[in-house]
Amino acid sequence: xxxxxxxxxxxxxxxxxxxxxxxxxxxxxxxxxxxxxxxxxxxxxxxxxxxxxxxxxxxxxxxxxxxxxxxxxxxxxxxxxxxxxxxxxxxxxxxxxxxxxxxxxxxxxxxxxxxxxxxxxxxxxxxxxxxxxxxxxxxxxxxxxxxxxxxxxxxxxxxxxxxxxxxxxxxxxxxxxxxxxxxxxxxxxxxxxxxxxxxxxxxxxxxxxxxxxxxxxxxxxxxxxxxxxxxxxxxxxxxxxxxxxxxxxxxxxxxxxxxxxxxxxxxxxxxxxxxxxxxxxxxxxxxxxxxxxxxxxxxxxxxxxxxxxxxxxxxxxxxxxxxxxxxxxxxxx
Length: 333
Fold this sequence. Notes:
Layout: H1 2-17, E1 24-29, H2 37-53, E2 57-62, H3 74-79, E3 85-88, H4 112-124, E4 134-141, E5 146-149, E6 163-166, H5 169-177, E7 181-184, H6 187-196, E8 201-204, H7 206-211, E9 220-222, E10 230-236, H8 237-242, H9 245-253, H10 256-281, E11 285-287, H11 291-300, H12 302-311, H13 315-332
Parallel strand pairs: 1-2, 1-3, 6-7, 6-8, 9-11
Antiparallel strand pairs: 3-10, 4-10, 5-8, 5-9
Helix pairs in contact: 2-9, 2-10, 4-10, 4-13
């Protein structure tokens, strides 16, 4: 009897030592550093918020490319389950997300909030494709790009025959329409080109220029809304399906529309802060064309918009819906 009681006591102690529920480990990766805007201001706050709502998951961070450094391979990492969640730039994943090109169209989106909120709404409407083997946790975008030049320009006409870094095919088409020679380069390759003088300028956002330490390599910022760079926070579909309903609810209650707004706000705030610092320093010339000039080049860019619509399945519906959502947002504000 004494032996039996000892067994019961040991079993009770073992039960107390075990967690109430087994936690699902989620590996969250990004190819950029922890201090980057997207990680520090969007992804980490999302992880922390989810942790306060459910004990069913434990998120483990892998920043700075620990799970894979190549920015062009991030979709493969999450699709194949090397990362459970990762930050993907659609522009680096050629052909996978055809409708995402709408965000790169110059002179369409004015702010990070516009691009972020419209992006999530287009997804909710089923107008964005390419999510094979993954679940979209969140959509957000950086502040609209500008032209950061090693060689200064007085107008966009001056970039004719210059080599300018582009992020994706839409940026490349716009540069070609202006007579420039687009160079599809990662941020690291862009820095190398600017440093060596093999690239005359680059399409990039303020936050990207700061994150990748590119500002010391340029002498001018020519500020026109040269398209926005959309970001996707993707989860491996198998991992998503393995989670409890409670975990899925917690993940998406802080993803989706909430992450779109949070991401848009974060990039706007950080971008404005960086721009103010650059102006205060005074080394880089910051040129902001007047509204008439903006409208002039927006009109010229219409051919790039039309070409994207014609080349994209369902492109007209995506474009028209995006414009409609933008009109609604601007009217509300």
